[in-house]
Fold this sequence. Notes:
This protein is an all-alpha fold. It is built from five helices and no strands.
Amino acid sequence: MDYSDAGAECEIEALGGCEGSNPEQTSAQLARLNQRLQHESQRYSESIDDLLMLYKKKGLKISEIKKTYKAFLIDCMLVRLHVLRRVKFDWNASFFQHRVGFGSMNCNDHSIIKIIYH
């Protein structure tokens, strides 16, 4: 027994075998499979290497977009923190003005507070 024949037999059995088929049926089935292979090859003309390169490019583009989005989220959080800090500062300044009573001390209302803030 030749090993190449055994390999071919194993492959045929793995594909569903050819028991109960005559050579004409097997030849017709092979012709249909070859025709389907050629049709699919024409339909999808890209090679595997081209598809892999395209996949890598798309992956890099997606990772760059994710980094940009993450940086944007961080910037948004920093702006929000700054706004919250400013609101808290304005509230504290207002409270301090009412508590100390700048009006009776003859001072400009916001000048001292703004100097402290900046």
